[in-house]
Amino acid sequence: MSPHRSERPLRSDSGSGVGRRSFVGSLGAGVLGAAVLGSGAAAAQAAPAPFPGRRGAELRPAFLGTYGSGIITCTYDTATGALTKKSTFAAVTDPSFLALAPSGKVLYALDNARREGAVRAFAIGAGGRLTALGQAQSTGGANVTHLSVHPSGRYVLSANYGAGSVAANVVNSDGSVGARTSVVQHVGSGPDPSRQEGPHAHQIITDPKGAFVFAVDLGTDKVYTYRLDNGVLRPVSEVKSVPGAGPRHMVFHPTAPYAYVANELDSTITVCPYNPATGVLTRGASQPTLPDGTNPGTRNYPSEVVVSPDGRFVYLSNRGHESIARFAVADGGATLRLLDTVKCGGSWPRHISLSPKGNLLFSGNQYGNTVGTFTVDTATGALAASGAPFNTVSLGCVLPI
């Protein structure tokens, strides 16, 4: 199965122009900062409380970002991960990536209704029901594919895959998205003529302390470091990947000075030492995301990468092999050791996310129209399928809160 497969309502994944649709990152990239809410956010004055479950089990909200089907609100059982659909907010186009204000009061989403991408905000009400806060605001570039919230709570950051640019928008006092304050155009290309003919910004996140902003660009084979200065993204440094690797998404270790970069085009993961004082990343060792001798049956395209809350395990989704890889973190974060892979519970696992406690993992399977749900052995990091996959629509991400 080629990554260039196009299905309605999906657009082409060819990496040419505005045809790209993507998702990202880990949950931790969106759950950042302090909520900034004022008197205008009456619908968002209280974070949603847990729902009562059977036999004392706790139910929590989860949001599904989709292609063509709006934002779906579910509940999930915090012990088993079992999902139940509750409602849908349909009036948003291809909200394939979502990010949450840390208070749990506001949800941010992509909106690709027009050629130039946009970001939007929603108040989270009772039962996870969503109410629009303000209007969609432009990201200044085609085909926005990822967003996160700056730790200050004052800015939403976005990556425009089609344009190869990254942007910042201010957050208003009521939690709505305001005017764009910065846009930076990447320049360059890579050796793959079909996927790296120009820049393709795929993800934008901050480091764990919020000192620097990082943009992962598949087209230029680079990760860029920025400083956010009063809403303006100012370049600091950049690190080049192995030529043709196609870096897609990255995640920081929660405490050690390392980042882990998933490379889409050469099916590897790279450990990057990080200097938190300067924001400089250094390219370290790369290794395959599949066990030695594995034949995926087709080409394999890593997508999302997440790290356990205790920093002991890294998980990565393999599209093509249709699996989730488990890595042990060793040498204080400097080394990853592939332990095993498990089937994702569907086809094309575009996104994976961990529950806040780290005891559940969800796999958003874009082409299979399912969510694979797994319990996590917190001692060993091992994944075990928890019931049958949840049947839904074409997914970009799963956001449990």
Provide structural commentary:
The structure is a single chain. With 401 residues, this protein is mainly beta. It contains one helix and 31 strands. It has one helix at 27-30, and strands spanning 51-52, 58-66, 71-77, 83-89, 98-100, 106-111, 116-124, 130-142, 144-149, 155-160, 165-171, 177-185, 201-206, 213-217, 222-229, 232-240, 247-252, 258-263, 268-275, 280-281, 286-288, 301-307, 313-319, 323-330, 335-343, 349-354, 360-365, 370-376, 383-385, 390-391, 395-400. The longest helix has 4 residues, at 27-30.
Summarize the structure.
The protein is mainly beta and 401 residues long. Helices cover 1% and strands 49% of the residues. The protein contains 1 helix and 31 strands.
